[in-house]
């Protein structure tokens, strides 16, 4: 749990068990790894359409729905034209065999 301390007040990317991708600034977390993000955006990447970016603002993610939370390299992130990114959706990790 304390491994999230270095990420506080920094941009992070979070992938959830249902394959959703969120980017925001980590403001806090608790013992269940519930996390609070500000300036949050959800990125919806599909193979046939431009990436859809939904501004969510302040957002709370339940710890039991988080697969991974990592730091965003802002230089790389800002150099990507997300409207041109295409790709397959990440499948769910729930009940994976």
Automatic annotation (TrEMBL):
<keyword id="KW-0747">Spliceosome</keyword>
<comment type="subunit">
    <text>LSm subunits form a heteromer with a doughnut shape.</text>
</comment>
<keyword id="KW-0694">RNA-binding</keyword>
<dbReference type="Pfam" id="PF01423">
    <property type="entry name" value="LSM"/>
</dbReference>
<dbReference type="InterPro" id="IPR047575">
    <property type="entry name" value="Sm"/>
</dbReference>
<dbReference type="GO" id="GO:0003729">
    <property type="term" value="F:mRNA binding"/>
</dbReference>
<keyword id="KW-0687">Ribonucleoprotein</keyword>
<dbReference type="GO" id="GO:0046540">
    <property type="term" value="C:U4/U6 x U5 tri-snRNP complex"/>
</dbReference>
<comment type="similarity">
    <text>Belongs to the snRNP Sm proteins family.</text>
</comment>
<dbReference type="GO" id="GO:0005688">
    <property type="term" value="C:U6 snRNP"/>
</dbReference>
<protein>
    <recommendedName>
        <fullName>LSM2-LSM8 complex subunit LSM8</fullName>
    </recommendedName>
</protein>
<dbReference type="GO" id="GO:0000398">
    <property type="term" value="P:mRNA splicing, via spliceosome"/>
</dbReference>
<feature type="domain" description="Sm">
    <location>
        <begin position="1"/>
        <end position="75"/>
    </location>
</feature>
<dbReference type="InterPro" id="IPR044642">
    <property type="entry name" value="PTHR15588"/>
</dbReference>
<keyword id="KW-0539">Nucleus</keyword>
<dbReference type="InterPro" id="IPR001163">
    <property type="entry name" value="Sm_dom_euk/arc"/>
</dbReference>
<keyword id="KW-0507">mRNA processing</keyword>
<dbReference type="InterPro" id="IPR034103">
    <property type="entry name" value="Lsm8"/>
</dbReference>
<dbReference type="GO" id="GO:0071011">
    <property type="term" value="C:precatalytic spliceosome"/>
</dbReference>
<keyword id="KW-0508">mRNA splicing</keyword>
<comment type="function">
    <text>Plays role in pre-mRNA splicing as component of the U4/U6-U5 tri-snRNP complex that is involved in spliceosome assembly, and as component of the precatalytic spliceosome (spliceosome B complex). The heptameric LSM2-8 complex binds specifically to the 3'-terminal U-tract of U6 snRNA.</text>
</comment>
<dbReference type="InterPro" id="IPR010920">
    <property type="entry name" value="LSM_dom_sf"/>
</dbReference>
């Amino acid at each position: 749990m304390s491994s999230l301390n270095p990420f506080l007040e920094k941009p992070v990317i979070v992938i959830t068990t249902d394959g959703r991708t969120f980017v925001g600034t980590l403001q806090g977390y608790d013992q269940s790894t519930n996390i609070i993000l500000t300036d949050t955006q959800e990125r919806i990447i599909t193979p046939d359409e431009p990436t859809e970016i939904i501004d969510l603002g302040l957002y709370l993610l339940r710890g039991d729905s988080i697969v991974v939370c990592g730091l965003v390299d802002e230089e790389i992130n800002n150099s990507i034209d997300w409207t041109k990114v295409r790709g397959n959706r990440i499948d769910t990790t729930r009940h994976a065999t």
